[in-house]
Amino acid sequence: MLRDYLPILVQLIAVSTVGAAILAVSAWVGKRRPSREKLSPYECGSVPVGNARERFSISFYLVGMLFILFDVEAVFLYPWAVVYKSLKWFGFLEMFLYILVLLAGYLYIWKKGALDWTR
Amino acid sequence: MTPVQALDFIRVLPEIVLASCAILVMVAEPFVSARHTAALAWVSLIGIVAAGAGNAWMRRFSGPAFGGSIAADPFASYFVYLLLLAAALTLLGSVRYLETNQVHHGEFYALLLLGTTGACLMVAATELIMIFIGLEISSISTYILAGFRRADKRSNEACLKYFLLGSFATAFLLYGIAFIYGLTGTTNLVQLSEKLSAPGARPPLLWIALILAFVGLGFKVSTVPFHIWTPDVYQGAPAPVTAFLSVAPKAAAFAVILRVFLGGLASAGALVFWLLWISALLTMCLGNLAALWQTNIKRLLAYSAIAHAGYVLVGMAAAKAAGPEAGEGIASVLFYLAAYALMNVAAFILVAHLAGAGERYQEADDCTGLAYQRPGVAACLTLLLVSLSGFPATAGFFAKFYVFRAAIHAHLIGLTLVAVLNSVVAVYYYLRVVVAMYMREGNPRASASPLPWPLGAALALSLVGIFYLGLFPTPFVRLANLAASPLP
Amino acid sequence: MAFLRHIWLIPLLPALGALTQLLAGRRLSNRAVSIVSVGLPGLAFLWALGCFAELLKLAAPTYLTNLYTWLPAGPFRLANGSLAQLNVPVGFQLDPLSAVMLLIVTGVGFVIHVYSIGYMGHEGGYYRFFGYMNLFLFSMLILVLADNYLMMFAGWEGVGLCSYFLIGFYFQRKSAADAGKKAFIVNRIGDAGFLLGVMLITVTFGTLNFQQITEAARSGQFALGNGTLTAICVLLFVGATGKSAQIPLYVWLPDAMEGPTPVSALIHAATMVTAGVYMVARSNALFVLAPKAMLLVAAIGAATALWAASIGLVQNDIKRVLAYSTVSQLGYMFLACGVGAFAAGIFHVMTHAFFKALLFLGAGSVIHALGGEQDMRKMGGLRRKIPITFATFVVGTLAISGIPGFAGFFSKDEILWQAFSSPYGHRLLWFIGWATAGLTAFYMFRLLFMTFAGESRVDAEVAHHLHESPWTMLGPLVVLAVLSVVGGYINWPTERFGHFLEPVFESPFRAAGVQLYGRNDELGLMVLSVAVALAGLGYAWLIYVKRPGLRERLAEPPGILHQILLNKYYVDELYDALFVNRAKNLGNLLAAFDLAVVDGGVNAAGWLTRTSGDLSRFWDKWVIDGLVNVLGFGIKVLSYPVRVIQTGVVQTYAFFIALGVAIFLGYYLVHFRP
């Protein structure tokens, strides 16, 4: 019973190790030139302290929204992957169509310049 | 659960065609130069016609699809035709409108198609979650459409109000669905109906679920008091969008009410009847009374649309009251919605034309003397208004006639009386516009430019339909009866 | 049988004309408009003649045809509990009664169309005028040829609508637009009665077909004086008082003279206003079973005849005199129907159509000659200037005044005789009719003398342009003048006309009273009525011709009785005070209420917004106070005019939606829970 969870444990250990290793290596190898901006806490690009009613660039929302959209849609791939084999060709075709539709949307926002921050 | 088959896809053919066409139009939009945007409109129109053809073709394959979450039955088929008609008329009415208002973007057509897709899913769905998905698809598309004139303050306001209140009301629907699932363990209408009609199987809290679900749907069809958004949104949204908005989601939501409240949840008799009855009463009275005050034609038509929803609810209440003989009431509702679709879409797209660039001229006074500048246009608007008010020889007359007859047969004498009184009152405000056009002197401020041909074609189509239904209603009644018979 | 089989062509022809004019008339030349819009009614008239000829050859003089089922209304339960299947077809019925009306409508209609070519030649909107006139003919023909009440009602509404359009034809004039509106609204009141009557018929008989209803009524299943039938008849008659301008709904007709004169002649004299008489005659099988309703019809008819004639005595506008005269003559027709002499009523409809159309067209010719002047005080001495108009006008005047030998004499005398001798009649009814005949002769000759006789009072400038009308106008006058003479001999010396109509009107329920009076008495009455007509004539001559100083006397301030009559018994003012102003007050009241509410609404909106912010507290309070309060409050809010809730603030809207949910839930708790 508990043996079933063994892969998860392995995954946990692997992830923590890799994470820690990357941090350690960058701390060891990288140069440090601290500045005010660099030392302030990271809040998705906005100033963490001050008037909350600040105006943001519209691109900020646009990219944020698109990110969430594609992110959420990607989540659908996980349950699909689990039952992929039992669905056979039908499952493959369905997901193919699904991704095609996503791609169409991607193509659309790309051509519309929604991803172009400087526009 | 049976594995998915090719038949399942055939049974949602119209939706597939519409959605594919919408995606095609959307992807093509950035690649098409602004001068040729109209081409996308024609592509969309072809898509709508193809969907109609698909709908006709799949009649041979009727039956449930996708594990009983969709039903391809005459009922769905009838409504799909209706929705496609509304979409096609709107499309024809909006091509030139978008050009004059300088918002001619291909997305309009894509959203229109998607909105129709969602509505088609709603009418075909026999599963509460499916219904909800359809509702959301159609809602989100129409939210955006309502704000399509981005530079216009009122359009923005309409969009935001519709969105906020729409999500608010949808939440109620979802809440209701959750309740139903929690109480019965299923969201499939057929299973629901079986479970609830079993003796002694009435979950005690079902009434909450019913009322909550009714609120969400009542919002879409604007029954009082959930109509509150309607005047502002109809007035602010671009007029062709209003045309679509006042018909397609509304008809779809009515179809859902029929399927859910007269089908799946039919055993909760007294409460459903009371809900329909009181909503019908309030909606008719308030819609008509409020319309009496209006001078703005769009707003007037918005209240008139509310009032019409009230008449439709009379038919539903009649169907509910008639018990096992609900067919007549349901058929009358179907007939009414067809007539209503023809009249209302046409009226709004015509108003869109008259209002001119920027929709500046929406007041009844702006049409003063129009009859002498543009007799054809004035006559057309007059006929539409006359039909809306229910004069004989027009579709509006028989629509009311059949609803009232059904109500009388169901012994809803009081309600019928109120409805008749209401339709008498309504004549006054419809005729006010006619009087402005014919009886008063002066130069109309409203756009006196000739009708663009797509709009002309749409109006001609509607008028032919209106008079066909008004003069030879029998074949169509037969059709409505056919569609009404196999309600789950 | 070719004509009868295609009887539907008769209404269709003018409909085609109307369609042409209203769709493409603007692009047509006046000439083309005239050819189409006068030619098609002409064809319709010829076709009607063909139908009439074929009808005479039929064994039973009734021809029925169904085009298609217009309104299949399924089975429904009658008032007596039995099931009935109601199918209303688009069907035509040609029997002696509708044949007479058909010939009047198409014949007189055609003649007036011809006249309009000349009269309207210089007016704007030529095609519009003819379009509406054709449309009117179509509706009127539907009304007359219908074989059921619903189709008749459709035509009834159609003629009302056309009348409204045509009265307001000079829409630039406020008075014309107002007159149109008045006619429309007053007629609505009558139409409501008619419609209720039709509904009552539906649930009583289970059919709307004239033939079937007549058979059912004559079959003996309804007793004499049956309450339901009486109610039906009274309701139908209410409809008739609206369309045919009887007390108390006559007020629209004089104002309707704002329309062009051919309209007055066609719609407001010859055809549409007689629709009420036709409808009552058509329903004769029902009326004879309802003696009380008959008495009402007769009384209202007689009263209207006298009342309108007395107003006509002093009016100075030439068309208004004729309008009141029309109201008065319509009163005669109803008097006839009310005493059971339906044939006499229809006879008078016919002769009246001839001579009143003639008088109106003649008046039109006078107005045309004077460049639009309608005030008789500014006329006089016209007989030499426009001799043909004068000659025909004399014929019309003699006819309406009941001078022997002219058409009006025969029909009016028949009515008076029936009022006197019929079992439904009464001597008082006769007396009123008789007195009215005297008044009629007086005001008509007053009109004739003031217009044509004596010295000219025409403005110098107008006198300069005085001219006889063109032949398109004079031709119709001559035709109608001839008809106004020979029209009466259809029923004299043998009662051909009465016998022709007999199949429609004979009924086992006609009160078979004892024949108290014989033909000799009729002769006596005839002498009396001729005497009173001559007396009226003579008195008019005395005042307006013999005694000099007419011009001065016209300028004098009128006496008190004169004043009352001149102001039409102040009925318009009375109606204004009683109904119109009350409606306006209601409007003002609502407006004031609105103002108060909107003022308060600003505060209310602020309050509501704040409140919806801390909704939870609100909820608590309500739950404590009891859900009944919620209900009460909710209903109160809903019953307020809508503007209060339509604040435009999204939060408020959301609040109301939530409130709606609360009310529904609360109501369920209160009412459905045991």
Task: Describe the structure concisely.
The complex is a heterotrimer of chains A (119), B (488) and C (674). With 119 residues, chain A is mainly alpha-helical.
Can you describe this structure?
The complex is a heterotrimer of chains A (about 120), B (about 500) and C (about 675). Chain A has helices at about 5-30, 35-40, 60-75, 75-110. Chain A is mostly helical and about 120 residues long. Chain A has one domain: Methane Monooxygenase Hydroxylase, Chain G, domain 1 (Up-down Bundle). Chain A is flat. The model of chain A has no long low-confidence stretch (mean pLDDT about 85). Chain B has about 500 residues and is an all-alpha fold. Chain B has one domain (about 5-485). In chain B, a hairpin with a 4-residue loop joins strand 1 (about 65) and strand 2. The longest helix of chain B has about 30 residues, at about 155-185. The two termini of chain B are about 20 Å apart. In chain B, about 65% of the residues are buried. The mean pLDDT of chain B is about 90. Chain C is mainly alpha-helical and about 675 residues long. In chain C, strands 1-2 form a two-stranded antiparallel ribbon. In chain C, helix 17 runs antiparallel to helix 19 (about 425-450) and helix 27 crosses helix 28 (about 625-640). Chain C is globular, with a radius of gyration of 29 Å. Chains B and C meet through helix 7, helix 9, helix 13, helix 17 and helix 18 of B and strand 1, helix 6, helix 7 and helix 29 of C.
